[in-house]
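dumping this here so i dont lose it
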């Protein structure tokens, strides 16, 4: 195993962790904010480019058969392997694949937005229900 193989594995893991973060950021409010305001817009802008940055890095690190190396890494990590099989199945059986890159971005932004909406809705009390508000303190002009 040479240095290029190690960097290839690191790039693959970074790629998987980014998508894992997008899909699971709704679990915590802080990660939801990071997902909504930074990660998803950045991924959207990067997908506008005519090439995929991480795929190009993978191609440069493993010039002969980077896709086969990627498959081997996914098989070792188990979950990405079955996720890819599910993606392939949905590509064949659905009009639009819900777990393609755009589908995962939509899922991430919707779930994180809902998390932030309901978190903010629970934290903000209406003035009338607040403990510090008393009706006799309101001045009428």
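and the seq i came up w/
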């Amino acid at each position: 195993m040479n240095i290029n193989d190690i960097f290839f594995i690191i790039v693959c893991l970074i790629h998987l962790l980014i998508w894992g973060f997008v899909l699971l950021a709704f679990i915590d409010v802080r990660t939801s904010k990071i997902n909504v305001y930074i990660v998803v817009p950045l991924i959207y802008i990067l997908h506008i480019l005519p090439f995929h940055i991480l795929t190009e890095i993978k191609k440069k690190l493993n010039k002969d058969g980077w896709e086969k190396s990627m498959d081997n890494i996914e098989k070792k990590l188990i979950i990405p392997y079955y996720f890819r099989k599910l993606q392939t199945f949905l590509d064949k059986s659905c009009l639009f694949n819900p777990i393609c890159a755009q589908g995962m971005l939509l899922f991430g932004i919707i779930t994180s937005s809902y998390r932030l909406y309901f978190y903010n809705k629970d934290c903000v009390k209406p003035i009338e229900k607040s403990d510090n508000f008393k009706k006799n303190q309101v001045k009428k002009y």
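Residues 3-117 form one domain.
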